[in-house]
Amino acid sequence: MLHALTHITVAKTVLRAGEAENVFPEEAEAELDIRFFPENSKEELLSMLRKYVPKNYGYRFEVKSYLPSTYSSLNTTLYRAIEKTVSEMGYKPLPIFQTGSSDSAWVRQLGIPVYHFMTTRKELEISRIHGTDERIWKEDLLAIVEGYWRLITNLSRV
Fold first, then answer.
1. pTM of the model
2. Rounded to the nearest 10 degrees, what angle do helices 138-156 and 77-88 cross at?
């Protein structure tokens, strides 16, 4: 995961080519999932990809979707309220970057800061997140509810 946090990553997620096993395809198509940093533009990413395609091949790039990488400032009223809430509960805030994406990227494009906030008593079981055996401990659910209650209370005092 550290590599994905410090590098642009490119995953070949869909490959299409011929339909018969004994005929070379005239065309091939690849879909790529590219994860990048907020400072990388679409043009920079396309330029980077062109460096890896042989010059004498006929090819074209088509961008099916482009969602710029985003982040929220740590200097906002909401973030300060989150820090206060987490401290009141005996924890230390841990700002992190996630390698995936969420709907928050669309909201941030509107200029609205978004933070993924959760307080738990037990260590998260990272390998279970979004899996078929995903679960949450009862005491963690109660801690999450308490965390949001405290956060709303702290925001009302600002």
1. 0.65
2. 130
Can you give the residue ranges of every domain in the chain? 2-50, 77-156
Mean pLDDT, residues 71-86:
91
CATH class of the region 77-156: mainly alpha
The closest alpha carbon to 59, from 46, 75, 69, belongs to 46
d(CA 122, CA 93): 15
